[in-house]
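Appendix C: a fully annotated inverse folding record. The material below is reproduced so that readers can follow the format used throughout the book. The structure is listed first as tokens, followed by the designed sequence.
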């Protein structure tokens, strides 16, 4: 049966090659007529929507690729792996691997006009690969939206004259709490940090107010209603952004993909004017070339490319499938990875300038006391640093608005791969009810994410983030490269493949 399907696939592709070889490159109407006919044969569905403008595809890819990892993961990796020296393997991988993976996925989506499930079903032995991408994106969307919910809660709590994580006079604070902005001296603060006995006010707010974390993963201790409301708001916003597919999300990205750069620039300008900003920036950019001898540095750089650009999740293929057949995706494959990498570096300056001010104010040169990876940097270290600024509440609102726009943009872009994949796989069932499909997917994922708003929820968040997607997406990316780069050539033929590419980009 598999051989019959492969032969049938080869026959259809050979017919398409013969069509392409006789088409006039100047007759654009013939292009769309031929490709639309082929798409109808493969999917038996109505013609696919295209981006309203080319800039919508560009902004959608930027919003998908530039996410929370650029702000809370990249600066930490730089500090841990030799500062400016880390940029060498990072930029190298960005050029060699990032650009190639981005081009491969967007080009295959654009050339076929299909989502991940339909593309890999053309090669029966690897038909499950498309489903794996959809499942991985679905799992990611479940716990990624809880981060968006955290930012919504922090934004709400920032609308006060005195930030609740700036002092130790709250009902949730313990006797071990201390505050940099309180009456205690810097030496007392440093003793608290170095011994590990005491906790900052920002850490206690995160642990005992936001998370209300239980002592063990098995102790759920009920749902936190404040986080539940924030999660509901996050999923409603996600649905609104993508209820009409790219017809709605393509317009939303004009705001969500550009607003983070405005917030980031404002924070950077303020950070660089603070006393001691250079202390933090120095730890960020001064290179330690000896670290390049460590294999861990190179692994971290390669992993960051996967986290930031987002290949193997299905999102890039999905976005590419909405391009017109002759869209210049080569240009975007160069431009978008550059934007993504530059944003990571740019965001590091904004983060470390404020951290440097905190180091200066407390009289310590140990950045590891303040800079943590992941949520620790976004919800403990940086909010703690903001409490030492004049008008701290304003800067807190700006910072968490930036995190919110970064998070919601990546969230609905990732979920687009799920809904589009299901829509393409079951066109007769979904039909014209695309909005209903989106609503059902959002509601199901909301229900699956309820465990994350329990008092043991953060344990499950770390479990999913560490084991559910990190390793699986690397395996998916490896198999995807083999299937698209090798088996496609074997089944279709190198002449036809080259002709398809020449025709698309001429």
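Designed amino acids, in order:
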């Amino acid at each position: 049966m598999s051989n019959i399907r492969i032969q049938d696939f080869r026959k259809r592709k050979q017919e398409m090659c013969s069509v392409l070889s006789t088409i006039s490159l100047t007759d654009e109407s013939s292009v769309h007529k031929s490709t639309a006919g082929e798409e109808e044969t493969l999917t038996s569905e109505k013609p696919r929507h295209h981006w309203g403008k080319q800039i919508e595809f560009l902004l959608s890819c930027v919003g998908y690729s530039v996410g929370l990892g650029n702000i809370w993961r990249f600066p930490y990796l730089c500090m841990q792996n030799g500062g400016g020296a880390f940029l060498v393997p990072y930029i190298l991988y960005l050029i060699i691997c990032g650009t190639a993976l981005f081009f491969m996925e967007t080009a295959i989506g654009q050339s076929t006009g299909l989502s991940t499930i339909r593309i890999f079903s053309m090669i029966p032995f690897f038909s499950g690969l498309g489903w794996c991408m959809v499942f991985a994106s679905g799992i990611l969307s479940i716990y990624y939206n809880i981060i968006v919910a955290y930012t919504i809660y922090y934004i709400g709590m920032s609308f006060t004259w005195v930030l609740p994580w700036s002092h130790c006079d709250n009902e949730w604070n313990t006797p071990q709490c201390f505050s940099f902005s309180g009456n205690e001296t810097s030496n007392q603060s440093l003793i608290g940090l170095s011994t590990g006995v005491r906790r900052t006010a920002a850490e206690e707010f995160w642990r005992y107010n936001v998370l209300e974390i239980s002592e063990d993963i098995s102790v759920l201790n009920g749902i936190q209603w404040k986080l539940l409301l924030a999660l509901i708001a996050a999923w409603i916003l996600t649905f609104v952004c993508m209820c009409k597919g790219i017809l709605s999300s393509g317009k939303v990205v004009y705001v969500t993909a550009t607003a983070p750069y405005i917030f980031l620039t404002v924070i950077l300008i303020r950070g660089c004017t603070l006393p001691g900003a250079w202390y933090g920036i120095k730890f960020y950019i001064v290179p330690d070339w000896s670290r390049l001898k460590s294999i861990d540095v190179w692994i971290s750089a390669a992993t960051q490319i996967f986290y930031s650009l987002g290949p193997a999740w299905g999102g890039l293929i999905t976005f590419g499938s909405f391009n017109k057949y002759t869209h210049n995706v080569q240009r975007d494959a160069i431009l978008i990875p550059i934007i993504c990498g530059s944003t990571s570096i740019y965001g590091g300056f904004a983060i470390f300038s404020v951290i440097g001010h905190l180091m200066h104010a407390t009289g310590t040169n140990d950045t590891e006391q303040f800079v943590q990876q992941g949520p620790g940097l976004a919800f403990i270290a940086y909010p703690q640093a903001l409490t030492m600024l004049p008008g701290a509440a304003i800067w807190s609102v700006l910072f968490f608005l930036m995190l919110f726009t970064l998070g919601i943009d990546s969230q609905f872009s990732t979920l687009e791969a799920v809904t589009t994949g299901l829509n393409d796989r079951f066109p007769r069932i979904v039909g014209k009810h695309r909005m209903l499909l989106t609503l059902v997917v959002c509601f199901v994922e909301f229900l699956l994410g309820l465990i994350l708003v329990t008092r043991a929820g953060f344990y499950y968040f770390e479990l999913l983030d560490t084991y559910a997607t990190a390793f699986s997406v690397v395996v998916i990316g490896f198999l995807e490269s083999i299937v698209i780069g090798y088996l496609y050539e074997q089944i279709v033929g190198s002449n036809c493949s080259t002709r398809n590419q020449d025709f698309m980009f001429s």
